[in-house]
Amino acid sequence: MLFSVFDAKPYDIPGFEEAGARYGIDYRFYETRLTPQTASLAKGSDGVVLFVNDILNAEVAEQLCSYGIKFAALRCAGFNNVDLRAVKGKITVVRVPAYSPSAVAEHAFALLLTLCRRTHKAYLRTREFNFSLAGLTGIGLKGKTAGVVGTGRIGREFAAVAAGFGMRVIACDPFPDLSSGLCYCPTEELFARSDILSLHCPLTAQTRHLVNAASIRGMKRGAILINTSRGGLVDSAALLEGIRSGWLGGACLDVYEEETDLFFEDLSDKLIRDELLTSLISMPNVLVTSHQAFLTDEALRSIAETTAENIAEFFGCGRCRNEVTARED
Ligand code: NAI
Fold it and tell me: Scanning 28, 91, 219, 300, which has the fewest C-beta atoms within 10 Å of its C-beta?
């Protein structure tokens, strides 16, 4: 079996080759993303392996079908980049529902601790033997309220880490996990009470711009927003205004609404025309990482293993337990 892996980075390849060899799967790796312009690269393969910014819409599905390809394996948990209604009945889409929820929760805390304790500034200073503490006063976490939006796999891990720091944890979720012992409240109340608000829900039509001008006004003054979920959950212009006005105390962003053409690439010698992003990055109390929360050795191994399992299961019996259907969207 041969599969075309789009948006493949050097760190993806060893894990995929190793897991593929165990399952009798060969991979052809492409650096480029799947788009209507690149879909023809998949010709001759049994399926495609996609990441968060590959596009699988009606046009791409049509092209893939014309090459006899009816299977797409997402090597991620989120599937908002797939038009499930458009591909229904044409392409079977599977995903890796969980690979390392703790990796994302830990990264959210890495960002939060950096922002709160200014370690990024201190690191740069001491490298130049500048041992001054001026401007490095931090914000403590113990006793603060952490609001968790979405208590699925990652949200629950985040809540556990927050509790370990001695934070009060509150949460909202339309499907609360009643066995978790978490204290749930309505979304508006959560926004109003949280010192730290961390987003862990999927991006859907209902959650797009969950953080907007009105909901930011409903947040506590000085609150810090963490988004390691999907960029579209936050109205970036409203966030920038919230930061500029001083209403928000800071933001930790691993995802960005318009990240598709920017993240995962080295653009250090290019002119970035996205003024919203450049303004956000220039704020002293905003930290941006480029969708790296998942990126640990453990997660990469788990992604490659589950993708190979998904492929073997589907091509073995015509079904896969990790299939994503339009109903879930
Ligand atoms: P999950 O499916 O286990 O949990 C999502 C939870 O959000 C569910 O409990 C669901 O009921 C809840 N939810 C849905 N709508 C909501 C709403 N309006 N308000 C509050 N809660 C709501 O998903 P998991 O594995 O915890 O992942 C969460 C998100 O993290 C994914 O959707 C994905 O977008 C993102 N992610 C980001 C990564 C990164 O590298 N930055 C890596 C992996 C996932």
Answer: 28
CATH number of the domain where residue 83 is located? 3.40.50.720
25 shares its domain with 150: no
Catalytic (active site) residue 259: yes
Q: Is 187 a residue whose pLDDT tops 60? A: yes
What is the number of domains present in the chain? Answer: 2
Whose CA is closest to atom 15 on ligand 1? 201
> Distance between CA 126 and CA 128 in Å, rounded?
5
Instruction: Say if residue 279 is in the same domain as residue 134.
Output: yes
Indicate whether 244 and 321 sit together in one domain.
Answer: no
CA of 24 to the centre of ligand 1 (A): 32
pLDDT over threshold 70, residue 327:
no
**Mean pLDDT (whole number) for 122-144:** 98
For the Cβ of 157 lying below 6 angstroms from any atom of ligand 1, the answer is no
> 165 burial class (0-12, 13-18, 19+ CB within 10 angstroms)?
middle
Query: Can you tell me the distance from the alpha carbon of 101 to that of 153, in angstroms, rounded to the nearest whole number?
Result: 6
Asked whether residue 53 falls in the same domain as residue 187, the answer is no
Each residue's pLDDT tens digit, 271-299: 999 999 999 999 999 999 999 999 999 99
Compute φ and ψ for 45, nearest 5 degrees.
-105, 165
- For the segment 179-189, the average pLDDT, to the nearest whole number, is 96
Q: What is the mean pLDDT of the chain?
A: 96
Residue type present at position 230: R
Q: pTM of the entire structure?
A: 0.91
Domain span holding position 59? 2-99+296-328
What's residue 47's pLDDT? 98
pLDDT for 212 beyond 70? yes
Cα(189) to ligand 1 centroid in Å equals 20
Contact 199, 174 (CB under 8 A): no
Task: Confirm or reject: Cβ of 172 under 6 Å from ligand 1.
Answer: yes
Distance, CA 121 to ligand 1 centroid (Å)?
Answer: 31
CB-CB neighbours of 185 under 10 Å: 16
Nearest CA to ligand 1 atom 25: 153
Q: Which of 95, 153, 200, 291 is catalytic?
A: 291
Residue 98 alpha carbon, nearest atom of ligand 1: 25
